[in-house]
Amino acid sequence: MRQVIIIGSGPAGYTAAIYAARANLEPLVIASSVEAGGELMNTTEVENFPGFPEGIMGPDLMAKMQEQAERFGAEVLYDDVVELDISGDIKKVTLGSGATHEAESLVFATGSAPRKIGIEGESRLSGRGVSYCATCDGFFFRERVIAVVGGGDSAMEEATFLTKFASKVYVIHRRGELRASKIMQDRAMANEKIEFVWNSEVVDILGEDAVTGVVLQDTVDGSTRELPLQGVFVAIGYDPRTHLVHQSLELTEHGTVWVDGRTSRTSVPGVFAAGDVIDPTYRQAVTAAGSGTVAALDVEHYLAARGDAGLPATEVAEIDGLADVGVA
Amino acid sequence: MTAKATSESTWQQDVIDAEGPVLVDFWAAWCGPCRMVGPILDEIATEHPEKITVLKLNVDENPNLAMEYQITSIPAMKVFSKGEVEKTIIGAKPKFALEQDLAAYIA
């Protein structure tokens, strides 16, 4: 049995793993088989992570975080949690491979998934012109006319990135102003391939086997019109990934996992949550990393209070190679 | 075992004229999810050598085939049978999910 299992391998999961590993808790990280590294794996340049004044590519940053966690003894499994039993004192995790693992505590850091518009043409044409990942799919839209739906930082980043390929990029936003940060707005507005379509909502995506256009509804006067294009990149935000715990953990009105104040304690003792899955507001790589730190420290305190962590973590760390002595 | 690469020059014999079902993984080096799903497809190829052939097609090096098969999102996995596309799977998925999708061929 483990002392702690960490579910998720974004900045929250790996930072929790770094702290837990340095406290000799030998964490097991369930990283996911195909989404390991989390949302930053789908980004290009990260310019706002402290310590990287020249910027760093998202996948490189995640590789470094993983390396740092493993250096201190974290074990990373590329598998997916398919079942989670947190009702008892011992938490039980079942993986896609069929293997099960048990731990005294759990850090839930599953992040968030791109939000869907929720219209019929969207799911039908997903992967056929409708995309949620500009860095993955932009390549296929060389010299095409495409749209990015959304008004936040990720929409601006995607639109700017997509001008490398597309001949024209519409940014369709349902309001008359953007939510994005000033620097990202300025960058997009200065780009001559980008045209903003204000106060417009995508109510349908057209096409048989491939996207041929969108139907827009004016949010001010309600009128509709068609806009011909070949690709739609959806960047309207993220939803917390709670499907493993929506029956077993208390959630907030935002759909995030409820935690007690500034701690990472969930409604179930021994289960801690961190990162985007608890954060409806900030959702930055740095805030997620900070949140992962909180979770690892809360886990340490929890295990120490149970008595089976034995010595305070700092003392255990000093007795090199004797991490197990305190385990009852 | 690593799945073999196919290309525009060998496409006809590798895929169109092949006897059994052929799964073609349309991928690129810059695609993170492709790098994750690649080893999973290698495993599936290794576990079912006589049931399905798994081939990889680099879309950077073979843009005409990517266009012909209307690829707009990768990884895209297409199962060809007698030269025709019989099944399309888009996006990286865990092994157990891919095995479900491919049950008709490998179960």
From TrEMBL, chain A:
Its cofactor is FAD. Binds 1 FAD per subunit. Signal peptide: none annotated. Keywords: Disulfide bond, FAD, Flavoprotein, NADP, Oxidoreductase, Redox-active center. Residues 3-292 form the FAD/NAD(P)-binding domain. One of its GO terms (cellular component) is cytoplasm. Its EC number is 1.8.1.9. It is an enzyme of class 1 (oxidoreductase). One of its GO terms (biological process) is removal of superoxide radicals. The keyword Flavoprotein applies. PROSITE patterns: PYRIDINE_REDOX_2 (PS00573). SUPFAM superfamilies: FAD/NAD(P)-binding domain (SSF51905). GO terms for molecular function: thioredoxin-disulfide reductase (NADPH) activity. It catalyses: [thioredoxin]-dithiol + NADP(+) = [thioredoxin]-disulfide + NADPH + H(+). It comes from the Bacteria. InterPro entries: FAD/NAD-bd_sf, FAD/NAD-binding_dom, Ferredoxin-NADP_redctase_2, Pyr_nucl-diS_OxRdtase_2_AS, Thioredox_Rdtase. Homodimer. Belongs to the class-II pyridine nucleotide-disulfide oxidoreductase family. This is Thioredoxin reductase. The lineage of its organism: Bacteria, Bacillati, Actinomycetota, Actinomycetes, Micrococcales.
UniProtKB/TrEMBL annotation, chain B:
GO terms for cellular component: cytosol. The record marks 25 as: Deprotonates C-terminal active site Cys. GO terms for molecular function: protein-disulfide reductase activity. One of its GO terms (biological process) is cell redox homeostasis. Keywords: Disulfide bond, Electron transport, Redox-active center, Transport. Transmembrane segments: none annotated. The record marks 32-33 as: Contributes to redox potential value. The active site is at residues 31, 34. The keyword Nucleus does not apply. Residues 1-107 form the Thioredoxin domain. It comes from the Bacteria. Belongs to the thioredoxin family. NCBIfam families: thioredoxin. PANTHER family: GEO12009P1. This is Thioredoxin. The lineage of its organism: Bacteria, Bacillati, Actinomycetota, Actinomycetes, Micrococcales. The gene is trxA.
